[in-house]
Amino acid sequence: MQNIIVAFAKQSDAQNFKSILMRGGFEIANVCTTGAQVLSAMENLGSGVVICGSRLGDMQCIELAGGMPDYFTMLLVASPAKADELPLHDHSNIVYLPTPLKKDDLFSTVTMLVEGVQLRRKKLKEKRRFRSIEDQKIIDSAKAILMERHNMTEPEAHKYLQKCSMDSGTSLLETAEMVLSIK
Predict the structure, then answer these.
(1) What pTM value is reported for the model?
(2) Full DSSP string of 27-74
(3) Which listed CATH number (1.25.40.20, 3.40.50.720, 1.10.10.10, 3.30.470.20) goes with 133-182?
């Protein structure tokens, strides 16, 4: 999934970029005119690319970049004069593309950014998959406590930890640490 958000202060600019990108084979998740709309859309998507101008209806792109989640990257499309006014070097999650731009440059840059976001998510997912021995011992200890106190089987204790983890929005390890802290 590409999760591309197009955001420009003028609705007509946003729609033009959307149609150009769609003709290039990209799926657009949202079209926005304000930073608040972009931030709201990001919460629902989890990761992706925001293509925007230097200024939105309610904030500059720099302010938006500062509030973006880790799994989003911004493609700033602006004139060199406007880009020079912004402290782009302070933000590692902004890629700048000067106007006027060619479709091929836009398509290749968006493709690169989408693939980069997907790769970062995949690497983190793989990293989470392998727990250290110490982390596994903590989880096993929490399961043992649940099994002893609540007469659960090992699979039931594991399922309970998973459910509590999902309900509270914490990792399995953090949930196990909470169980151990209650002893």
Answers:
(1) 0.68
(2) PEEEEESSHHHHHHHHHHHSSEEEEE-SB-SSSBHHHHHHT--TTEEE
(3) 1.10.10.10
